[in-house]
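User: Let's play a game. I give you a shape written as tokens, and you guess the letters that built it. Ready? Here's round one.
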């Protein structure tokens, strides 16, 4: 019988609690799922699987480059202007 290894969650490291600094917004790149939109078996590269991203200040606005999508139209990589967050500081 093969042995079973338990693997820890890469986001919470087995603690069952995910801590996020506030203020935070829903990750635009994965739309809050925490998974890559290219392959759902992969963790989102923008939010690290948390589904939300911290922003430096509460004064944010929609990213003008990607229109808050987290990636530019037709591209699969995170937007370079907002780093995939979908928002930029005012």
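Assistant: Ready! My guess for every position:
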């Amino acid at each position: 019988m093969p042995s079973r290894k338990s693997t820890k969650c890469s986001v919470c490291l087995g603690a069952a609690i995910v801590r996020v600094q506030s203020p935070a917004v829903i990750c635009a790149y994965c739309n809050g799922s925490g998974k890559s939109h290219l392959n759902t078996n992969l963790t989102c590269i923008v939010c690290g699987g948390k589904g939300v991203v911290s922003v430096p200040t509460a004064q944010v606005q929609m990213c003008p480059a990607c229109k808050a999508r987290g990636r530019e139209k037709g591209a699969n990589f995170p937007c370079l202007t907002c780093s995939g967050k979908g928002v930029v500081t005012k």
